[in-house]
Design brief:
216 residues, mainly alpha, two-stranded antiparallel ribbon, 4 strands, 58% helix
């Protein structure tokens, strides 16, 4: 399931509509009709394998559901789905481990998408909270700003400090630093948050766990 979800993201993110990543040629195929097309075959195949492995799981569950306690000869049917699942999962893990390091990430395209749709509106509300305004009131203020931004067809970072002060006098020059996606990510330092320090801490924990498993 997790590999399928990851593969789906690769398929979506490598599409023309998203353009967040570019697949290496070694892990994609061309189209028989469209010369410019690069098909994410590896990711699509991994995604497709999930249906087969789910079938193996359902086969085993169906076999087990009618069995009383202790061994029954029905259980000889566990070998084929088990071995097929182990082989398929191993192959999927190996190919994705080879693919990921060779992905090209279009960071600028992703950054543009990160601020589309006024996603930093919550940052403005949080900013007002730091100035002593209750969140429910800050929410209402920022909702008004977003409506005007939509009407003017512009982003939140297009408002000057003076324009923002028309909506609330609590806005000051330091608000500019809040209208930044990188800063928004860094501010989420609570456990499970997106701050780079949190992510690095989790990566170290995962690496240590993998090292312990290898030793065992």
């Amino acid at each position: 399931m997790h590999l399928s979800r990851f593969a789906e993201e690769i398929v979506l993110w490598s599409s023309i509509e998203f353009g967040f990543i570019e697949l290496p040629d070694a892990f994609a195929t061309g189209s028989s009709m469209m010369p410019q097309k690069k098909n994410p075959d590896v990711a699509e195949l991994v995604r497709g394998k999930t249906g087969r492995l789910y079938g193996n799981l359902m086969a085993m569950l169906t076999t087990l559901k009618g069995l009383p306690l202790a061994y029954n000869r029905d259980l000889q049917e566990d070998k084929e789905p088990l071995f097929d699942t182990a082989d398929t999962l191993t192959a999927c893990l190996e190919i994705l481990a080879e693919l990921v390091p060779h992905l090209h990430v279009n960071t600028e395209r992703m950054r543009m998408a990160a601020v589309a749709g006024h996603t930093l509106a919550t940052e403005l509300a949080d900013y007002l909270v730091t100035k002593g305004i209750p969140f429910r009131d800050a929410h209402a203020v920022v909702a008004t700003i977003v409506r005007e931004a939509i009407a003017r067809k512009q982003g939140l970072d297009d408002f000057s400090v003076q324009e923002l002060q028309r909506f609330s006098p609590a806005f000051a020059g330091d608000v500019r630093s809040w209208l930044n996606p990188e800063a928004a990510v860094r501010r989420r330092r609570a456990p499970g948050g997106t701050a780079p320090t949190n992510v690095r801490r989790q990566l170290r924990a995962i690496e240590k766990r993998l090292q312990r498993q290898r030793r065992e």
